[in-house]
Write a structure and sequence with these properties.
4-stranded antiparallel sheet; alpha+beta; elongated; Alpha-Beta Plaits; 3 domains; 5-stranded mixed sheet
Length: 311
């Protein structure tokens, strides 16, 4: 059976990034050079080069007279990622080599950086990287192609398959606890490192109504989370066991709306379809500040997320 088409990629830019390097990485990963022919590009040619023992691609775009090369090449890179079907592009630490332009370095605010002894970091390359990529580790990928661009730029393309990890699930049943404490308890548990806190109704012995408190946490947070449950509730014990979890590749990005900037969480499902949800606290603050209905703020954030997805 044919493998599903790629939908995610990870970029190794530890030696810096330039727009020509990204063009080469796309072609080296299997993109037809003709796919880079966007408006104002008269013709496209590509050649294979070897850098440090690795085969890379060098791409030349012949532009219409008077066109700005950086702008047109950046448009071609965006078109290339769309043609490859890449919905999620992650990038690790970005290299800031000696002599990098201050403007290029300033664009990388919020990204993890490293300082290689050599490489290339251009302002146009940094601007394009910031607009396309989400900083962070590579998602779990079923690799379909690897491309290289100059200098020492590597693009790994594949199908996101989610990430698997293990957590602790802690449970305790409560039937003699005031519901007024649950909001306070949830805040403290999250502050202590809990990944999720849930309450489920249940019927306990002698027909008494109660709730089951369920908490997920990792190894590091286990002692403090367990101690909080035993001190903040009347519980005399906590059940705990290991659980396997699969999580989808995800990102959180701010989007601009008429109500202000709002963060939107997006996750990529196994079909390559994005699921988006605006951050509720951001929407609530924007609604309170502007007087707009909360649902309209949330709708505006979702619409802005859909619009920015193709950029």
């Amino acid at each position: 059976m044919r493998d599903p088409s790629p939908n995610a990629a990870h970029l190794d830019a530890s030696a810096g990034v330039s727009v020509p390097g990204l063009l080469g990485a796309l072609v080296s990963a299997g993109l037809a050079p003709s796919a880079l022919k966007v408006r104002s590009v008269v013709s496209v040619s590509a050649s294979s080069v070897r850098a440090d023992g690795v085969s890379a691609a060098r791409v030349n775009l012949k532009l219409a007279k008077g066109m700005d090369r950086d702008r047109v090449e950046s448009e071609a890179v965006r078109a290339g990622f769309r043609k490859l079907g890449i919905s999620l592009l992650s990038v690790g630490p970005v290299g800031v080599p000696p002599g990098a332009a201050p403007a290029a370095v300033a664009l990388l605010k919020g990204h993890e950086v490293c300082f290689p002894p050599s490489g290339t970091l251009t302002t146009a390359g940094a601007a394009l990287l910031v607009s396309l990529a989400t900083p962070g580790p590579a998602p779990a990928l079923k690799i379909s192609a690897v491309g290289h661009g100059l200098p020492f730029l590597r693009l790994v393309v594949g199908r996101a398959c989610g990430e698997a990890d293990q957590l602790w699930e802690l449970k305790t049943n409560l039937d003699d606890c005031s519901p007024q404490i649950f909001d306070h308890l949830g805040e403290r548990l999250f502050a202590a490192g809990a990944r999720d806190v849930a309450l489920a109704p249940l019927q306990m012995k002698k027909g008494r109504p109660g709730v089951c408190l369920e908490v997920l946490c990792d190894d590091a947070a286990l002692p403090s989370v367990e101690a909080l449950i035993l001190t903040e509730t009347p519980s005399l014990g906590v059940r705990r066991h290991r659980v396997d979890r699969r999580v989808l590749p995800r990102e959180i990005r701010p989007v601009r709306t008429r109500y202000g900037s709002i963060r939107v969480k997006r996750a990529l499902d196994p079909r390559g379809v994005w699921k988006s949800m605006p951050e509720h606290d951001d929407c609530r603050r924007a609604a309170a500040r502007t007087g707009a209905p909360l649902r309209e703020v949330m709708d505006a954030a979702l619409a802005a997320s859909e619009t920015s997805r193709g950029r």
